[in-house]
């Protein structure tokens, strides 16, 4: 199976639990990026994983309205990445980048809208602007595409950047015994991408344990943070303030700041809440919350501390439990958190008053692990957002992309239903 990913089985009820740093979890230690059936065999009791003094709030909401309105079938390749741009849904597989209609007109779609062949598996996709797409690949490269012209603008590192570094010994780093590369090269799969708020910087994270910063204007590599983690980096996200969050197979999340004088990144804090490899990150700037998903099947919500001080940069506010196997992808749109898992399901969660999260529903239908997600609030015909309406796109290792239409009831509607039932 493509992608070399490792998952662990975990039996959890759909719930939100308060979480502390002293949490003694029974999770296995393994590298997240190698797929192994043996790693599905572990299980644990979610209740026994938390101290008895910490209570659970069980989600009982069944009011989510959803249905699958279409299934895209690109080919026999695993779907590894998804993103949205204008009226397009863009998917990356082990062989191609495909562009699809964002709003499908038929129940099942087998004809590709646009297809662009790739030399290597597409691990991550990110939109730089409406016409420019960035793709990260298994073969250690990053490619910049012009969507409308269906052509590659640049491959990073660029030839110009490489020629400027190749002649000087100080630009080389040892990547393994008796082998060196210039510091601008990734030497393992590029797993994740992020773009700064002003679109001037591109960030890439890799299984080579580093993340790099590229200038958008000429695609020059400005900085490489080598050995940022002790194992593969699986995810990187940014906040509007410029903080960088990296999640790794070493079970850690690291928070990085940017020195305003020399523009270099420095480590602010290490978050060691997970007891297994961290696969996915999502950050919500509106409430300053980081959602992280791990191989254990647990997602953890950490909130930014406005005052900093002895409390650190981030504090854990809760754990989202419900998935039975590894979390592979997480997205946040508005009040909703969407998660995809090796248990072949997509779960939707809502953040409510008191920093609690409830699982609104489970989207089922994939025949393989859900590797990637895209999500957007649904718009009405006049361009206004429809209340409670969302489009969710899920890509799986079963080679399918499913398009879901979701309507989330308002708090008033939920209260009315609860009163009616009572």
UniProtKB/TrEMBL annotation:
Keywords: Repeat, WD repeat. Signal peptide: none annotated. Gene3D superfamilies: YVTN repeat-like/Quinoprotein amine dehydrogenase. SMART domains: WD40. It comes from the Eukaryota. InterPro entries: JINGUBANG-like (IPR045182), WD40/YVTN_repeat-like_dom_sf (IPR015943), WD40_PAC1 (IPR020472), WD40_repeat_dom_sf (IPR036322), WD40_rpt (IPR001680). SUPFAM superfamilies: WD40 repeat-like. WD repeats lie at residues 183-224, 226-256, 320-349. This is Uncharacterized protein. It comes from Lactuca virosa.
């Amino acid at each position: 199976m493509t992608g070399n990913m490792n998952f662990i089985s975990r039996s959890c009820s759909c719930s939100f639990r308060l979480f502390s740093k002293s949490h003694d979890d029974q999770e296995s230690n393994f590298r997240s990026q190698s797929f192994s059936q043996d790693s599905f065999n572990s299980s644990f009791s979610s209740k026994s994983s938390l101290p008895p003094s910490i209570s659970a709030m069980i989600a009982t909401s069944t009011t989510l309205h959803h249905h699958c309105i279409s299934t895209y079938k690109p080919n026999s390749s695993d779907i590894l990445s998804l993103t949205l741009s204008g009226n397009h849904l863009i998917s990356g597989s082990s062989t191609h980048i495909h562009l699809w209609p964002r709003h499908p007109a038929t129940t099942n779609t087998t004809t590709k809208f646009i297809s662009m062949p790739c030399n290597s598996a597409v691990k991550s996709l990110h939109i730089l602007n409406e016409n420019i797409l960035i793709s990260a690949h298994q073969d250690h490269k990053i490619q910049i595409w012009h969507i409308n012209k269906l052509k590659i603008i640049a491959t990073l590192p660029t030839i110009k950047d490489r020629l400027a570094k190749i002649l000087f010994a100080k630009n080389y780093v040892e990547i393994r015994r008796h082998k060196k590369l210039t510091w601008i090269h990734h030497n393992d799969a590029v797993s994740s991408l992020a773009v700064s708020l002003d679109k001037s910087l591109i960030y890439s994270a890799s299984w080579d344990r580093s993340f790099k910063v590229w200038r958008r204007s000429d695609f020059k590599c400005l900085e490489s943070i080598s050995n940022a983690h002790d194992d593969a980096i699986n995810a990187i996200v940014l906040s509007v303030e410029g903080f960088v969050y990296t999640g790794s197979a070493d079970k850690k999340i690291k928070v990085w700041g940017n020195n305003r004088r020399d523009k270099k990144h420095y480590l602010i804090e290490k978050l060691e809440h997970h007891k297994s490899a961290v696969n996915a990150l999502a950050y919500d700037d509106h409430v300053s919350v980081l959602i992280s998903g791990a191989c254990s099947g647990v997602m953890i919500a950490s909130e930014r501390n406005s005052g900093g001080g002895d409390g650190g940069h981030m504090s854990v506010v809760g754990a989202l439990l419900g998935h039975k196997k590894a979390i592979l992808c997480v997205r946040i749109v508005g009040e909703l958190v969407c998660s995809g898992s090796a248990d072949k399901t997509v779960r939707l969660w809502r953040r409510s008053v008191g920093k609690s999260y409830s699982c609104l529903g489970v989207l089922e239908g994939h025949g393989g692990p859900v590797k990637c997600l895209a999500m957007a609030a649904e718009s009405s015909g006049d361009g206004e957002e429809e209340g409670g309406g969302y489009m969710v796109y899920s890509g799986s290792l079963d080679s399918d992309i499913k398009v879901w239409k979701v309507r989330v009831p308002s708090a008033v509607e939920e209260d009315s239903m609860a009163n009616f039932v009572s």
